[in-house]
Specification:
By secondary structure, this protein is an alpha+beta fold. The protein has a single domain, classed as 2-Layer Sandwich (Beta-Lactamase).
Length: about 140
């Protein structure tokens, strides 16, 4: 999996990496990079990102729900070298089907049971045969 450098303010892998360096290095990064909104859930203010960095440092891991890709979530932790510098991150990601599909109306008409498993909606970008796209922009095959 690869993460586009520059978007370290969005997604659990990126935020875990961003939280590992010193306050000075994080501050420099935030001063020199735009905080682009990738989805409506992306943190786009320096204050919000710094608060999230504090939370990540306290917990030891980062979480993301819909920050890079809508309806995708992940959890990640930074991987450090023996000298304390960042090597990368390790994460797990999944889709959130409940948030990509509208809920059934409370008075939905009943339909006859089907023996076939339900198909994902065609607009679901995460479901392809043998391939999963993670919230941090990577693909697992």
């Amino acid at each position: 999996m690869t993460v586009t450098i520059g978007w370290l303010h969005a997604g659990s892998s990126s935020k875990a990496i961003l939280a590992a360096p010193s306050d000075r290095e994080v501050g420099e990064f935030l001063r020199t990079r735009p905080l682009e909104a990738l989805t409506p859930h992306t943190l786009v203010t320096r204050e919000a990102v710094l608060a999230e960095i504090g939370r990540i440092r306290s917990l030891g891991y980062a979480e993301s729900v819909g920050e890079r890709q809508s309806a995708a979530g992940s959890v990640a932790a930074a991987v450090l070298r023996s000298d304390g510098t960042v090597l990368g991150s390790v994460s797990i990601c999944a889709t959130s089907p409940a948030s990509t599909r509208p809920p059934a109306p409370p008075t939905a008409p009943s339909s006859p049971p089907s023996s076939a498993p339900p198909s994902p909606p065609p607009s679901d970008p995460f479901t392809r045969l043998g391939e999963t796209t993670c919230p941090d922009g990577g693909t697992v095959r």
